[in-house]
Fold these 2 entries.
Entry 1:
Amino acid sequence: MSAPLIEMRGITKSFGAVKANEAVDLSVAPGEILGLLGENGAGKTTLMNVLFGAYAPDAGEILVEGRPVAIHNSADALAAGIGMVHQHFHLAPRLTVLENLLIGIAGKSGRIDRARGLARLDEISRQYGLSLDPNLPVSALSVGEQQRLEIIKALFRGARLLILDEPTAVLAPSEVDGLFAALRSMAAQGLGIIFISHKLNEVRALTHRCVVLRHGKVAGRVDDPASTTSAEMAKLMCGHEIVPPVKQSSTPGASVLTLDRISTSAHAGTPLRDVSLFVRAGEILGIAGVSGNGQRALADVISGMLPPKAGAMTIAGKAVAQFSPRELQTLGLGRIPEDRMTTGLVTNLPLADSMVLPRIGTEVFSRKGLLNPAAIRAFAEQQIKAYDIRCPGPMVRAGALSGGNLQKVLLARELAFDPKVLIVSQPTRGLDIGAARFIQEKFLAMRAKGCGIIVIGEDLEELLMLSDRIAVMYEGRIAGTLPSADATVARLGLMMTGAEGHA
Amino acid sequence: MSVVFEQIFQVGFLAAIIRIATPLAFATLGEMFSERAGVLNLGIEGIMLLSAMAGFTAASLSGNLWLGVLVAVLVGALMGALHALFTVALGLSQHVCGIGVTLFSSGLAYFLYRLIFGQQSVPPSIDGFKPVPIPLLSDIPILGPAVFSQFTLVYLAIIAIPLAAFVLYRTPWGLSVRMVGENPRAADSAGVSVIATRFQAVILGGALMGLAGAFLTMAQFNAFTFGVVSGRGWVAIALVVFGRWDPWRSAGAALLFAFVDALQLRMQASGLGHIPYEAFLMLPFIFTIVAMAFMSRNAVAPSALLKPFRREER
C-alpha cells in the first residue's frame, strides 16, 4: 500500500470527565476501505467529528498525505479532501438535487453556474455509477437516493476520503448491495473510505482492514476482516465473549391474548383484514413481514391506539371493550412502541417522568390527585440500577440517552408491573450487540415467568431465535403461522412475498 | 354603487394601487429575505417607523431627499443588525426579540421626533418626491399615467421584485440564504457560514424595510405622524405567508392588498356616507384574513424558520 491518505495520531477528546477518545491512531491508504467498528458510545462518531472539524481534539494531530493539517470546521475538512456522509442527512428537502450540490460553491460572476454543476454531476455519475435527476426536489427522493446524493455531494467537492457513518442503518437489503458496489468502485479508483458500522457481516464483506474502538480506545485491529469470524470481532467490540441467549423449552399455558377476526379502517398505512391470532402464557409469537404489510396497524390495535372496525379481542380471558391504552394496561398489557423517541418517551422531560408516563394518575405514583415525586424518583432510581441504564441520574433529559439505554428505560417501565402480555415492535433496531442481547435475554426471562410476548420485527434471525411460533403478515392478513422449529429464513421470506398460503 | 365601479377603471385608481403597493412591496421583500434565511422579523413595524422618522428628519434638516432615503435605509439595516444580534448571534427567541425591536424602535422614533421638532399643532412637512414620468412609456394609454408617471421609489420597487427573485434563485448567496433557512446544518457542513448568511439576510431585509419607511414620509405623506406606518409592517408579515416566501408571489400579494385598500379609500370618498368610515378601513384586513385562510393552507414555511442555529447541538 502507498503512503496513507489520512493519518490520525494520538487523538484524545474529552467531554467533561468522559474520555470519548483516548490516544487513537488510525490511517487510511488510497484505495482502501477501512472499517471503524465499535458499540454505541465507543467513540466512533466523536472520532469522525474530530476528523471532519466539528470538534477540536484535546491532543493529537491529523496528517493529510503526510502533511499535518489543522481542521477547525467543515470548510477546512472539505479543503483537505475529507467528505462525510452523516447518519442524519444534511440536505434541504425543498431544494433540488442540483441546488443541494451547489450550495457553498462560488459561481462565476456572482451567478450560480448550473451548466458546470450539471457537467460535474454527469462526470461523477459516469465515473462511479451514481446517477440522480438533478432537477428533482430532495423530498421526492427515497432514503437510498438521498444517501447517494450525500455521497455525490462529497465527491462534488473533491473529497478523496469519504466517511460514512452507519450508512446501512437506513437502507433496505437490496439498496445495501448497490451502496457496496459504488463504494468498491470508488476505492478501486483510488479514493479512501472509512465505513462506520456495528454490523459485523457488512464490515467483513466490504472492508479491507478494521479498527475496533471500545470505551474510546483502540481495542484491536483486524487486518483481514473477510477471514476473521464475527465472534472474534464481537469479542473485540464488547471485551468479552458474546453468547447467544439460550431459550429454555417451556410448555405454554392458557391463551393470554386473542384477536378474533379483527379488521381496521384504512387509517395508518395498510389496514388489518380479518386477523385472528393468539398468544399463550410463556410463549413468544413472532410477527414477520415486509415493512408496511399491516404491522403498524396490528401494534396500534393491540396497544389501544387504533380501535378496530370489526372483530373482538380478549386479554387474559376478559373482552376488551373500549380499546383505550389505559383499559388495556389495566387488563395486563405492556407495550414497547416502535419509535422510542416519538411515541415512547418525552425527550425534553426528565427521564423519571417518562418512566412513569403510562401510569401517571394511578395510585402508584400519585396521592389524592397530586403527583408523588418521591415515589416517582425512587421508582426511576430503582429501575436505573436494575437495568444498568447508563445516565447521570433520573432527572436528566430523556433525549440525552443513547438508543440502547432508552430501550432499557421502555423495557423497565413495562416489566416492573409484570404484564401478562407484552407487545414489542422492532425491539433491537439500531442497538449494538451488547444492548440487543440484554433486551433479548429479558424477553426470554419474561417468557419463563409466564408472560405472553408478541415481537413484531424485520430481523428474521432474531425472530427465529426468540419465537416459539412465527406468524407472517402479508397485505394486512396473516399469511400463515409456523412453529419456529419448522421455520427457516428462506421459507419465511417466501411467505412474506405472499407466495405460500396457510401452513 | 355604480359610482364606485366607474371609479375603479379610472387611471387615478390604478395609480393609487401602485402607490399603495410600493411600501408594502419593499417591506414584504425585506421580511421575505429574513424569513427565507430562517429569521422571523417582528421588528418590521418598528423598523419601518424609525426609518420613516429618521429619513424624514434627515431630508427635512438637509433639504436633500435622497440623503433622507439613504439615512432611512441605513437605520433599517442597523435595526436589522440589532435583531440579528439577538436572534442569530445569541440565538434568542425570534418572537420576543422582534416584538422588543418594534417597541424599542417605535419608542425611540417618537422620542427623537419630539426632541428634534418639539410639539407642534400642525406636523411639519417637507417638499417630498415628485412623480418622474418616463419618456415614451408614460404616453401609453392608461398604463402610462398609472405606472410610468410615478415616483422614482416606485420604479425602484418595480425593479426590486425581479432583482430579489434573481438574487434568491440565481446567485450562490441566494442559494445559501435558502439553504440556511431550510437546513442550516447542511449549509454548515458544506462550508457556508450560517451565522454570517443569516446576518446578511436580516440586514438586507432591514434595509428594504427602511426603504418602505422612507417612501411613506418622503413620497406618500411628506410628513411624519405617529400613525404613519399604521400596521403596514404586520400586513407585510401576512403577505409573505400569502406569497409563499416567493418574491413574485409576495409582490402579487402586495398588489392585491393595495387594490382592496385603494378600493376602500374610494368607497369612503364616494358618498356612501351613512356607513362609518371605520367599516371601510377594516376591509383590507378582513380581505387579508380571508385570503390567508383560503390560500395559505398548503403554504410551507422554510423548515428552519424560528430555529436558532448552534453548532454543538444535535
Note: Chain A has a mean pLDDT of 88.
Entry 2:
Amino acid sequence: MSPDRTPAHPTTAPAHGQATTAGRGQDVIHNIGYRGYEGPRLGRSYARRALFTQSLRGSYGLGRSAKSKVLPMLLFAAVCVPAAILVAVAALTKSKELEVGYAEYVLLMQPLLGIYLAAAAPQAISMDLRFKTTPLYFSRPMERSDYVAAKYAALSAALFLFTAVPVLIMYVGALLVKLDFGDQTKGAVQGLVFCALFALLHAAIAAWIAALTPRRGFGIAAIIVAITVPYFLITALQGIALTSDNSGAIGWLGLGSPGTLLDGIQSRFLDGRSGFPDAQTLTGTQGAVYLVVFVALVACFYALLLRRYRKAGL
Amino acid sequence: MIAIESLSKRFPRVTALDRLTVGIEPGVTGLVGANGAGKSTLIKILLGLSPASEGTASVLGMDVATQGGAIRERVGYMPEHDCLPPDVSATEFVVHMARMSGLPATAARERTADTLRHVGLYEERYRPMGGYSTGMKQRVKLAQALVHDPRLVLLDEPTNGLDPVGRDEMLGLIRRVHTDFGISVLVTSHLLGELERTSDHIVVIDGGKLLRSSSTAEFTQRTAVLAVEVTDTDEHPDGTAALRTALRKAGLVPHEPAPDSAMAPGAGHLVTLDIGGEAQGADESVFDTVRDTAAELGLGLVRMEQRRHQISEVFTERSAGDVA
C-alpha cells in the first residue's frame, strides 16, 4: 500500500498552492462560458460521406502537410503529362487517331498506378490502425461497415480520378485536334469504364492489405508486391504457353493476376488492344468467366476487409 | 444516466463482468478497479459495441443492445491509449471528429474552437499534434469527446501518463466538465485517490463484480485527516512531540507516531489527527485549536494540510472484507 500512497503526497501537497493559479485560469474560461449545441445531428450517412471526402482529399495530400502532397502530386503529373504528349503527337503528325487507346493507356501506366496506390492505401487505412484512431470512429454513430464503405469508396474514387483525368485529357485533346468525334467519344467512355473497373479491383486488394498492417512501410511493400509480382508471373507463364504451343492456355492463365484479368476484360469487352502474348483476345466463355472472377474478387476482398474490422480496436 | 442490471460478459477464457448491477446518476462518477477488473469491457458494452452475455444496460434511457447508434450520438468517449495522428493539427482533427459525430461543417468548426479553448489549448492547436506534450494530447483527446456536446462522457484513465501537475489540471478539468458544461462524467482509474477529488460518487469493481457504490462525501467525511508540520525551537527540541502533548491536553486526539515513521523523510515532523466523523462544522474549531496551540508553544507552523487519501485504505479494507 505504501508504494501507492507515498507518491500521492506530492500531488496533494501542491494542490493548494495551485488552486489559486488554476483558479485564475478558470476565471478566464468562466467568462467565455460554455455553450451547448442544439443544432442538427446528421447521423450515420452524413458521417460516412464526410469520412469519404476527408479520405479522398487525404489520398492526394489535401488537408495534410505540404510534404505529404509531394508524392501524390508528382505521380499525378507523371500520369497526365504523357497523355498530353500523345495529343501533341497526334496534332503534329495529323494522324487520324491517338497513338495509344484509352484503356491501353491506363494499362501502360500500371507501374505508376501501383506506386500511387501503394502510397495512398496505407495512408488512408493503416494510419488509423497505427495511431489507434479507429476507436474514436467506432465510438461515434457510424458502424464498422460505414467506416469500411467510406474508406473503400474513397480509395476507389482516388484511383479512379488518378486514371480518369489522363483519359479525359486525351479525350479533350483528341477533340481539339479534330479527331473523329464518334470514335473518340466511344473510346473515351470505354476508357472511363475501364478506369472504374481498374479502380474497384485494385482498391479492394490494396485496402485489404493495408488493413492488415499498422505499419506504412509493410503496407507499401506488400501492395506493390501483390500487384506486380502476379502480373509478371502470369505474363511470363503466358509467354511460355505461347512458345510451347499451348496458346489455348493463355486466356485461362490471364485469370491469375489482377493486371491480366483487367487486360483480358478490356480487350474482350471494351474494344481494347490486347496486351496478351500474340495479342490474343478471350473466347466467349473465357470472357464470361473473367467477368465472374472480377466480381467475385471485388466482393471477396471487400468481405475480407469487413471481417478485418469486426474485431479492430475498441 | 446509466442503469446496469445483472450484466455479465463472458469470454471463452475469462469472465469480464459477473452479474454487475449498478445505477449511475448525473454528476461525476468514478469507476475504480484494478487493471483487468472489467472497466474497459463495461465501457464497450455501454457504447453498444459489444453485446453482453446476459443482463441489460441502458444509457440515457436507451437500451445498449438495440440503440447503440443513438447512444453514441449523445455520448463522448475518451480512450485510454494514444489515438491522435501526429501529422494533423488539433483543430483539423477535432473538426473531423465533430463531423464524424454528425455535426455540420460550420457547427463542427465553431464547436471545435470553443471546445479546444475550454480544455485549455490555444495557439498550439494549429500545430501538428506529433509535437504535443502528453498533457496537451490528453486535452485534445478530451476535446474530441466533448466536441459534439454529449450528455455523458466516458473517460478511460484520463490521467494516465501525466505528471502530478498535469494530473491535477486534468482532474480539475474533469470536474468542470460537469460543473460548468453540465455534462455528466463517468471516469475510470485504477487509482482511487485521484478520483475522490473529482467524483461525486464512486463505484468500485473488481473481477467484474461490484464491490461498492457510494457517494464520495460519505467517505471523505469519515476519514478526513489533518496533517500538521511544525518547526523545532530551542525550547522544544522536538516540536512535534510537544505539539502532540499540547493537543492532547486541548482535548484533541493526535495519532501516535508510527514506529516506522523515521523511514519516510520528513514524516517524523508531522502530527496527524482525525477531523472527520463529527459534523462538518467541527473542522474549523480543530484548525483554530491547532493554530493556537502551536502559537502558544512558540512553534513555527510549516503547514496544515487536509488529507483524504486514506479513503483508499477504507476501500481496501472493506473490499478485503467483502471478498472474504
Note: Residues 1-27 of chain A have pLDDT under 50 and may be disordered.
